[in-house]
Amino acid sequence: MSKNLISICNLSFKYDAEEVENVLTDISLSIKQGEWVSIVGHNGSGKSTLAKFINGLLTPTNPNSVNINGIDTFDEDKIWEVRKQVGMVFQNPDNQMVATTVRDDVAFGLENTGVERNEMKNRINWALQKVKMENYLNHEPYRLSGGQKQRVAIAGIIAMLPLVIILDEATSMLDPMGRKEVLETVWKLNKEEGITVINITHDLEEAIFSDRLFVMNKGRISIEGVPKEVFQESQKLVEAGLELPFSLQVQSSLANKGIEIARTCLTKEVLVNELWKLKSKT
Ligand code: ADP
User: Fold this and answer.
1) What's the 65 CA to ligand 1 centre distance in angstroms?
2) Distance from C-alpha of 52 to C-alpha of 242, rounded to nearest angstrom
3) Which atom of ligand 1 is nearest to 43's Cα?
């Protein structure tokens, strides 16, 4: 993990110039190649708008505000290059299926960019293997489960060989099983293929395992850091309208009853271990 792949510097934005409030205010952040980061925040805090700047759907009003892999997105001539490098998975699985078979669905983006036939076939097979959907080549997408549809959508994206995948609330309409499938798939792509992952979510449980997280509140980044640091700011997280992960809620209830646990326990397993240690001391 080395160079900054994404750099955003003092970015402010409103959709409508007449609006008083900004949708984004003074956002600065950088993300390194190969990182898994989460952008968390309540509905309306500006997460999707920020994502649209990262994949070039929105362009900044000033130069040197948004740089993706060396490209300043102020330069509209290069915007297609940025869009090729950053793939996005959206919330609703049904809106992302565009063809009548899984194979054609994954082929869609490749056909549009004129990839040669043999290369296309290889990439489709590779991408479907990566998301564990290789046995569904001729299946009709609409018959698949939500988690399977999202995995096919991810296959369509990785077939284009992007550097970055943004999941924009991509698990929020899925059942727990589908959610697990999608997160495990993206986790593997991050670890094995080195694809940079940005997970946008309002669910702090999902952010626990990221390398770093950015918490958004009313268009600003209110906290950033590694999970251990960020989760110590429970007051600010609650102010941002977020629900604390289960293990932190238990820890806070225990603290109210006078039972203090020295470290921040982000998972149930760690919490149980700490409670076990406390019990052994008594
Ligand atoms: P989040 O992803 O955190 O829910 P969004 O970035 O979607 O937040 O929205 C931030 C704010 O921008 C909200 O107040 C929303 O109503 C407004 N907004 C989002 N998209 C548009 C748009 N296309 N036109 C005008 N306002 C928008």
Assistant:
1) 20
2) 22
3) 4
